[in-house]
Amino acid sequence: MAVRSIKYFTEDVDLDEFMKDLPEVFKREGTVIKDDRNEIRVINVGGRELCVKAFNKITLFNRLMYSWVRASKAKRSYKTAKLLLEKGIKTPMPIGYVEVKGACGILKQSFYISSWEPGEYIMSDVIEKESDEARAILMAFGRFMATKMHPAGFWHEDLSPGNILITKNSNHSYTFSIIDLNRIRKKKYISPRIGIGNLKKLTNQPIPLSIMAESYALASGNNPAGFAFLLIAWQMFSSTLRRFVKRFLHTFKPKSSKK
Which domain of life is it from (predicted)? Predict the structure, then answer.
């Protein structure tokens, strides 16, 4: 029989039993909202809806790293959520994390648990729409990144449209909640000229990029036109580099022999 140990952490003592049993509960309960490299389920626990993200497909190298050198993705997500909230940056309330380890303490699987906060929109709903509201959201997001995320030193390495939740407030302003936290890095300082490049994965369309960049520039005391050009250049360079790397790696794939 395979050796297995379960380590968990939560500040909510009412969830102790749930955390202990999570690896088995996750297999049979909850509503699946994402299932690819990692799986996300919403599970009702005593009338509370919790969002559970399972980090499943871990390479052997990363298993060793997360076991002895680095914190697991689940633990990093929890700690990052706490840091974001301390700085007044919204993210679903962190509940805890679970780590499942096998023989020799090697990590097999980890889970990050937070409250379930779906938001009214996600950024992918509006990023390429042509409407007054979409424009207002993009401008607000540019200001948010320039005045909240980057001054606090947070750099999201996977700032894609699906990782930004949006809520419209009663005064017609917008609140942004950041998810997929394990790829956020804390830096000592992010200059506006570097920070603007963090928006490059949101879209490849120049108009929404320009709207966000101009808003970012105005909020950080920089030139709007210059920052719009800079962000579009960042995006084009990044896309070109990705295509080049993909084609380069493709040349090493073994070709199937035809009979």
Answer: Bacteria
